[in-house]
């Protein structure tokens, strides 16, 4: 687990959910991104005596300049076969790692393992539940599953093969990490993806996330628009490079994926354009 930390409010709960995994053979690097809040006392209380956990602190805040640069700094440090980019406010069910370990053994060629997720609020109440997917999907089917009704898009419910991620240059660096999770997982799905049947992860939408901040913040709104454009460029290039067997069924799937991407991107850009117009009006 690589855990960039900044917010204290749910930090203890996040650490406990990792510490309480039934699968015990793991490491955790907690990286304090020069937070103004006191994170170290919380860390010491929960896991300071656990040799699987280590704590580091950036000399200056990286997230204000580039969230993904902090992620990739931790990727460079990572020396395990698999990695998880965890959050300081998300929660893992106790059997999360056990199920991911089972999938990694059953599908040894994949570079991406994906657990179903639920969206929770600040009080832990469930807002939304992820769709149910096939246990194994090829890259094309994975890209199509992103448009399933009720799909939950987040980062911490994915396990990535470390060497494969490093070979690809690390996480895709987009402004505010807006779309970086989706772009990186799409990139890592080339060898297929294994999905859990059970919901094993809680993605918290507490209002403290950058993605939750008001459109009245002009700088953030413009960065989101830029990220949408860059994500579109990334996906167009990725879709051009996808190779698949030329069956009618695969061709139809490919065409659906391209159409879905165009529709999704058009919707994002229209929404961000309206936001930008509103910001300029303000």
Characterization of the model:
By secondary structure, the chain is α/β, with parallel strands linked by helices. The chain is built from nine helices and ten strands. It has helices at residues 11-19, 40-47, 67-77, 96-106, 139-145, 162-167, 180-188, 218-241, 248-281; strands spanning 2-5, 28-32, 53-57, 82-83, 91-92, 112-120, 126-129, 136-137, 158-161, 193-204. Strands 4, 5, 6, 7, 8, 9 and 10 form a seven-stranded mixed sheet that branches. Strands 1-2-3 form a three-stranded parallel sheet, with helices on both faces. Strand 6 (112-120) and strand 7 (126-129) form a beta hairpin. Helix 5 (139-145) packs across helix 9 and helix 7 runs parallel beside helix 8 (218-241). The longest helix has 34 residues, at 248-281. The termini are far apart. The model has no long low-confidence stretch (mean pLDDT 90).
Topology:
Elements: E1 2-5, H1 11-19, E2 28-32, H2 40-47, E3 53-57, H3 67-77, E4 82-83, E5 91-92, H4 96-106, E6 112-120, E7 126-129, E8 136-137, H5 139-145, E9 158-161, H6 162-167, H7 180-188, E10 193-204, H8 218-241, H9 248-281
Parallel strand pairs: 1-2, 2-3, 6-10
Antiparallel strand pairs: 4-9, 5-10, 6-7, 6-9, 8-10
Helix pairs in contact: 1-2, 5-9, 7-8, 8-9
């Amino acid at each position: 687990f690589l855990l960039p930390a900044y917010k204290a409010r749910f930090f203890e709960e996040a650490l406990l959910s990792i510490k309480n995994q039934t699968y015990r053979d793991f490491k955790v690097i907690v990286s304090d991104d020069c937070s103004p809040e006191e994170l170290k006392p919380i860390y010491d209380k929960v896991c300071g005596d656990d040799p699987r956990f280590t704590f580091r602190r950036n000399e200056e805040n990286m997230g204000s300049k580039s969230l993904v640069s902090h992620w990739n700094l931790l990727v460079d440090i990572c020396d395990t076969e698999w990695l998880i980019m965890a959050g300081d406010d998300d929660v893992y069910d106790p059997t999360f790692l056990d199920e991911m370990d089972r999938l990694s053994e059953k599908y040894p060629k994949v570079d991406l393992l994906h657990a179903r997720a639920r969206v929770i609020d600040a009080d832990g109440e469930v807002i939304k539940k992820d769709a149910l997917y096939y246990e194994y999907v090829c890259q094309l089917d994975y890209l199509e599953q992103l448009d399933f009704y009720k799909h939950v898009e987040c980062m911490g419910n994915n396990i990535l093969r470390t060497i494969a991620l490093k070979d690809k240059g690390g996480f895709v660096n987009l402004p505010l990490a807006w779309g970086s999770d989706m772009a990186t997982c799409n990139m890592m799905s080339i060898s297929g993806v294994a999905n859990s049947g059970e919901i094993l992860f809680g993605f918290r939408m507490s209002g403290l996330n950058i993605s939750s901040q008001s459109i009245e913040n002009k700088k953030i709104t413009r960065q989101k628009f830029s990220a949408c454009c860059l994500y579109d460029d990334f996906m167009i290039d990725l879709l051009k490079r996808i190779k698949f067997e030329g069956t009618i069924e695969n061709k139809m799937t490919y065409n659906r994926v391209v159409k879905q991407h165009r529709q999704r991107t058009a919707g994002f850009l229209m929404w961000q354009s309206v936001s930008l117009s509103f910001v300029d009006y303000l």
